[in-house]
Structures are given as structure tokens and as C-alpha cells.
Amino acid sequence: MSGDSAQSGIAVDALNEPQSDAVAQADGPVIVFAGAGSGKTRVITYRIANLVATHRVPPYRLLGVTFTNKAAQEMKHRLERILGEGMARELWIGTFHAVCVRLIRRYHEQMGLNRNFVIYDDSDQKAVMTRVLKELKIDERRYAPKKVLARIQREKQEARGPDELSIDGYFDEIAKRCFEAYQRHLKAANAADFSDLLLHVLHLAEDQKSEAGAHLRSRFSHVLVDEFQDVNQVQYRLVRALAGEGRNICVVGDDDQSIYRWRGADVRNIRGFTRDFPDAKLIKLEQNYRSSGHVVSAALGVIRCATDRQPKELWTNNPDGEPVKVVHTANERDEAAHVVGQVRALIATGISPREIAVFYRVHAQSRVLEEVMRGQDVPYQIIGGHKFFDRAEVKDLLAYLRVIVNPQSDVDLVRIINKPARRIGARTIEHLAATALTEGCSLYAAIGPLCASTRIGAATKRHLRTFGELLGGFMRAAETASPRDLAEEVLEESGYGRWLKGQDNAEADARLDNLQELLGSIQEYEEDQSYADEEPTVADFLTRVSLAADADNLADVPRVPMMTVHAAKGLEFDHVFLTGLEEGLFPVRGQQAGEEEELEEERRLAYVAITRARHQLTITHTHTRMIYGQVRYNEPSRFLGDLPARDQERLVTEALRDVSRSVSSSQSSPPWRELIRAGSPQRSQAPTPPPPRPPGERYVERDPDGEDNTFGDGGDLDQGAIRAGTKVRHTKFGLGVIRQLDEGLDPAATVTFSGWGVKRIKVRYLKPA
DNA sequence: TTGCCACAAATTTTT
DNA sequence: TTTGTGGCAA
């Protein structure tokens, strides 16, 4: 391709990025090792822009793949700014799964899928597997559906089918039989699981015989992959195949940040890339633009000890900043108190809570931190956790829609057949399944034959028939109604809405709200489609939902983000608190033989965590920790020993000093004694002094154990104790503030909950906070 | 068919 | 400690 750069109205200046010329070359394979904070995503973005603007590659022939919707979104936005909306819209940018769904849309006939196929998520997969185990009469307790499924998914991530499963022991025999049956079920249900989405495309792309395969392979002239260290075998083969003869493939990643091996990611892909593409141009980006000198140096100290990594030296021009603080604390409460105390101090100096993050290795650690945050009135937000579309009631309504669009989907049918209760219980479903098996049809199609048989009572037949007619009616309605109208009709006619309304509790109210929100999101989808001049369909909406990440609801109030280290990948913050650096927790495991690779991954995880910090990093660890209901005595994490001495400052909390004094008098001096420094500025302590309270709020002495705080003598919220502004707690929504109060026989309040928004809740469901 | 109790298990998680 | 699941009684 020529370097002709006479282009039309494109912001050329934007292309003159420091790294872009390194990857400006248009042809041939390129691999970029991009260290943490070196501007990884930028490289891909500018390469794409450059290909379009300078090398005149038609945008629709460019494929850019990311791992998360968020990353894809970000990349699209950046490219819109550089290339303009019209051009950017033509680009193929998305997650592996989203891209594959788009391709399946175009090639579904060659893949043996019906247009209206549905995507089965984890719980659907588990439901299928449970069914399979029953059918094969395999003991569910000895062979847990989750275990079998995990085994199968491991195979699928390597693009192996049931026939290629290598058998080693009895479990594998079982797994193989289940695998076959599982795929059979998916096919019959006109469904695909997440791996299938990729596999369908892969199989066509690697098919040397069909014309469609050749067409698919030549579709894209350039393929670019972000976070290449996270690709699994299937994804790697997929991008290789899609790059086709041109071999214009550019991958960007950091082997030091490979933390998803347990999920099928294979670092060997990034390390082996140069084997598959010996002519690949290798580029290393080693300058870190993000973090302070001490942070970068600390991160290097940890990662340097890693065995088997692509040698590279991260460096930075940034000032040294403050050394990393390593704080030894007495226990998890002390640790939380210290972290929250520091966070408050930072906020008090005017730093935005959004720029102060708290990390932990496992979710189980978050509870204590949350309690102390709440107790000290620090606004926080847990990142990760469940998605909106995973809520039971949302999944229920979606299951109705899925059955309507695709009546072959048995798991969806089972999900809703008795919701609301229609007197169709497990027994009847078993009969239905048996009939479906002998008839070789779906559960839905088996309703007729079963009702014609004599195996079930007349009453049950009536219930089944009514249900069948209900669905039939919906299917007819689906032909003309818009998705939103259909959803509303389902909610109404199925009795689901009435069922929820009948349950007089706050939980049901919240569920109804969530369903309203779902209707809202369908509406939004319809509007999007009409804006894009496309027909909205239920099937398309369902696909989007399946591939959607959590709707990261932008917090109205700035809050301190709290998350696992995994969730932190790709993010950065001015101040980072990394908790629980203890042997047995971080690294979580890895001391035994055969777990070396796991330990390596923990090390990379620690590296990822450290490199999230821009200005300041505080690492904490505890002497004892109660986790999973058991007290553990902890050695400091081995990773702490890898931090260079000059980059860190070791501190202990007062509470630990007390512990150490009493312990050291009776025992030989423990290794952390020498960490105690005179004049350490720790103010942490076990019973937290009462935080200052805003006027107009009653303050009551807390129970020293920190259990439920109560108004006065506790018990229920009495009328006198609440008014607008009162803080309350709800079992599901957590902490909230009353906005408005409606008196009456059964008083209700409008409450703003952090993370949940405004809800109307009966006062009797609220507890004082 | 539903609801309750005992018991076990318990990283990390996107699509 | 919390959460999910299976068995059993009403």
C-alpha cells in the first residue's frame, strides 16, 4: 500500500502520536509488547486511524477486537473523534463475541443455526447440564453439573469436540458422554453458549473447502487485537484465520498482565506469536506514562522475579513521588479502619473519591471494608458483582421472550412454566421431558402429545393446555407487536405482574421496578434502532442483552471504587489501597508442587494491582484475619519481600503494636517486630471513635462489636425517629436516605439508596441505620 | 407442591 | 461468615 496521505478532512495531527509511527507500517504481522501504563489501547486506535486515513484501507475491512464492551466502546469513541462518525461506524470494532454474532448473522445458514438462535449464559448452561445428567442417569452428587461443565468448557476453549476429548480416567468418560449430549441439547434448542459463538465462526473460517469459508477469510484486510495476552486457543486461531492470506495482523498485549489463565487464556499465544509469524515486527513499549517512579520501581521489583517472561524494562520519566506504604495491621477490622481513615484524610484534602480505589484479592474481603466505610460515611461503590440482566425477575421476563421467539429453548420454558404458579410442578415437567425424549421434540412441542396420553391427571392436563395456549397467543402477538408491546403484554397476560403485585413486600416492589426498567431498556433499544434505521426485533434485543456487560450506572455522587484486583485491570487511579497482602490470600495458593504456574499468575496479578496507581500506593496486610468464619494467622505475602527497600516505607498500626507487645513478651520475637518504627503516624485503633455527625441527626453510642447500629434502644423505626434525611437500612438495598415520608396506616417512604437509586418502600421494611 | 432445615462449600469473571 | 442445595415433612 502506498504512503499517499492526501486525505480528506481527517485530523492528521491526531495521528502524530509518539508511538504511532512505530506501528504505522501497514502490512505484515506486528506484535506490540506494551508495558503497563505505556498507552496500549492508544496504539491500536492510532494504527487503525492511520490505516484508514493514510493507507486508504476501507473501514469496513478493518477488524478491531477487544475483550470487554467497555474497551470496545472506548476505542470506537476515540476513532469517532479522529475519523469522524461516518467512517468510524463502518469499522468492525467489538468484543470477540459481538463480532462473532455479527458474522453468524451473515453466515448462519452455513453454520447450521436458525436466525432466531438464543445465547445460553452460565446458568442456562448449568440447567442444560443438569437435564443431561438426569437423562443419562448420572449421579449429580458425584458429578456436579458445574464440574462437568467446567471440563467441557476447557475442551471447547481449545476448540476440541467430544471426539477429541482425551480420556484419562472415569471422570473423562462421563464428561465425554455429557459433552455429546450437551451439544445435542443446544442444537435442538437452537441455542449456542458463549464458546459456540466463537467456534461456529472458527469452523467456517478454517474450512478450506467451502466458498463461504474463503469469503470469510478474505473479508478483512487488517485484524487488530487488544489485550492479546488474554486470548485463548480458539480466539487465537480465529484471528489468525480471519487475517487470511494478507496476514495483516497486529496484536498488542503484555504478558506480565496475563491474569486469566484459569479462564482459558493462554500466555503461550503471545509468546508463541513470533513462532507462527516469524517475520512479525516486534515492538516494545517500555515507557510508563502513568505512575510515579516509586510505583513503577515497586512493580518492577515484583515482576522481575517472574520466571519465563518476555524480557523488558519498564521505566518512567515521572517524578519519584512518595514511597509505597506497607502497613502491617492487627486484623481485618484494623486494616479496614486504617484504610478508611486514610481515605477520609485524602478526601478531606479535596481529592475526589473517584480517584481513590480500594482493591482486594477476593470478594469476601469487601464486607468489613464496606461496614467501616458506611460507619464513617465514606461514599463507596463496589465494582463488579451481579448484572442487572441477571436478576431473577429480569431473567424470567427475558425467558418468556426467548421461548416466544424460539420455542425450542427448553431451559427457558422450564424457567417460566410455573412462574407464576400454575400448578405445573417438577413431576409434570419430568413427564413432559420424558415425552419430549420419546417424541424427539422440544418440551413445548411435547405438551400436545402428553395431554393426549393418559400419564397425567385431567387437572394437570388442563393446566398444561392453558399454558400452551398462553404461549401460542404470545407467539401470534409477536408477529405484529413491537418488542416493547410484546414484553408488556407478556407481563400482563402471563399473570407475572399480578403475581408480583400480590406479594406485598419491598422485595416484590423492587422486582416490579426492575421489570419497568427492563421495559425501559427495550424501549431504548427500539429508539436506537429507529435512529439507525433498522427494524427492532425481539431476537436482536435478546442477543444484545446476552452480550451486554453490567450497565455501569454512572454514579451521581463521586464514590470510592472498591473492587477485586481482577476487576481493576485496565483502570488507573491517583491513590490505590491494596489490601490483604498475605500468604494464603494473595497469593491465594501456590505453595505446593505443581502450582508454580498458579503462583506465577498471582505474581502477575500483584503487578497489575501495583501498576494501577498513579501517585500513591498503600499496601496493607494483617496479623490475623477472620475469613470464611475462621481466624487465620498470616505471614506477610512473599510479594512484599520483592519490593525494593528504597521504594517502600513500612508502618504498623497502633493496634498491631499492642498485639506485638503482648505476643513478644511470651514468644520469641516475631519477624515483623522490626517493622515498628518510632513515630509512625498511625492513628488506627480497634474501637473507632464516633465520626462527626451532621446536625439534625441523632447520634447514639455504637455497640463495640459494630453490629447493627440502632436508633436509641433499637428495634423498629418508630414514627418519631424518622423524617426526611434520616438514614435507614434495607436488607436488600443497604444504606439509604429518606427523601419523603407518607404517613398513614402503612406508612411508606421514598428512599434514595446508594447504588440502587430512588425506591418507594414501606417503612416497616426499613431498619434504622 | 411448597416450605423449611441441615449441611457443605467457599478464588478470580467477561461474554 | 455467607450462600446455595438437597432432603424431607406438611
Furnish the topology, listing elements before pairings.
Layout (H helix, E strand, L loop, with lengths): L29 E5 L5 H14 L8 E5 L2 H15 L1 H6 L1 E4 H16 L6 E3 L1 H14 L9 H13 L12 H19 L2 E3 H12 L5 H7 L4 E4 L7 H11 L5 E5 L13 H10 L4 E5 L1 E2 L4 H12 L10 E2 L7 E6 L2 H17 L7 E5 L5 H10 L4 E3 L9 H14 L4 H7 L9 H14 L3 H10 L5 H23 L2 H11 L2 H7 L3 H26 L6 H10 L12 E5 H4 L4 E6 L17 H15 L2 E10 L1 E4 L2 E4 L14 E5 L1 H13 L60 E4 L3 E9 L5 E6 L3 E6 L4 E2 L1
Parallel strand pairs: 1-7, 1-8, 2-3, 2-6, 4-5, 6-7, 9-10, 11-16, 11-19, 12-14, 12-15, 13-14, 15-16
Antiparallel strand pairs: 17-18, 20-21, 20-24, 21-22, 22-23
The protein binds a DNA duplex (15 and 10 nucleotides) through helix 4, helix 8 and helix 24.
**Mean of residue pLDDT?**
81
Separate helix tally: 26
Q: What radius of gyration results from the CA coordinates? A: 29 Å
Percentage of helical residues? Answer: 40-55%
* Largest β-sheet summary: 7 strands, parallel
Whole-Å distance between the termini?
A: 67 Å
How many strands in all? Answer: 24
Give the low-confidence spans: 1-20, 665-720
With strands numbered from the N-terminus, the spatial order across the biggest sheet is: 13-14-12-15-16-11-19
Taken from the alpha-carbon principal axes, the silhouette is globular
Structural class: alpha/beta
Question: Would you kindly provide a written description of the structure presented here, covering whatever features stand out?
Answer:
- With 769 residues, the chain is α/β, with parallel strands linked by helices.
- It has a 7-stranded parallel β-sheet with strand order 13-14-12-15-16-11-19. A 6-stranded parallel β-sheet has the order 3-2-6-7-1-8, with helices on both faces.
- It is globular, with a radius of gyration of 29 Å.
- The structure holds a DNA duplex (15 and 10 nucleotides).
